[in-house]
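Ticket #4471: complex job returned nothing on first submit. Input attached below:
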Amino acid sequence: MKSRAESAVETPGGTVALGSLPPEQLDRLQGELQREVQMISASLSQLSNAVSRLTASKENAAQIAEMSNDQEILVPLTSSIYVPGRLADTKMVLIDIGTGFFVEKSPAAAEIHFAKRATLLKEEADKATQVHTQKRQQLEAVSAVLQRKTAELASQNRETKKEET
Amino acid sequence: MAEMQVLSNMKRRIEKLVGEVKEVQNDLANSVNTMNNLQSQLTENKLVKDELDNLEQGAKIFKLVGPVLIPQQADEAKSTVNTRIEYISKEVKNAKERAQKVEKEQQQRRVTLLTEQQKFQALVQQVSAQKQ
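Support reply: We reran it on our side without changes. The output follows.
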């Protein structure tokens, strides 16, 4: 990382040395970065949720593959009521491929499908994590410079007041 | 106190400008949101298309309509998804253009506000210098 004196931030207008910005703009930049960091955090947690759901589905598909027809199972009606049932068909499972479409697949194919999607999402999450770290570093740099400038302004104000009295 | 009159007029103008800038900012946040939503819909539809294109022959496809699963032909499902992708792509393009327009407007308003504020400050300094 660069030292604080030359810390710079990418803006739509190009790279800007933070030290050269007036406090108002720094404040705005800080707000923008804070919002971005928050947004990325939210998507990151969504992504990790989705990955764990997909992993759970993959494990379930693997379990079904090992079971035989007529195997007794307990079917959840709600999270607290279960009724006994029998597996009618363990050769096919129905999976949700998104936007309201469902496809029948063999449990093995379903496993592959879920694994593929999980990898895809993990890649996205990795990318998002990188951007997240980067933005957080920028935010820290901006906050530090802003703090320094505010402190400088405050001490300047005190001195001019002293001179006046 | 002619200066005072001018100053308070300017102050009111600046307050109005600040309000306008905030409004445009909200507008921008909204359009960015819409764009992101559309973009994620597009991604999801593309994933579904990919899945449908790589299906094994004879695989059964169902579409969820309300609470029921309705069997569908592969061709039918594919054309539905393709139409959706086309439609959403258009929407994304529109939303992008709109967001860009709003952003430009925001920049302009900000510049107007800034120059107005600078004028105001210059005048304030002038007036206080005259007093001394």
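The two ends of chain B are 16 Å apart (CA to CA). Closing as resolved unless it happens again.
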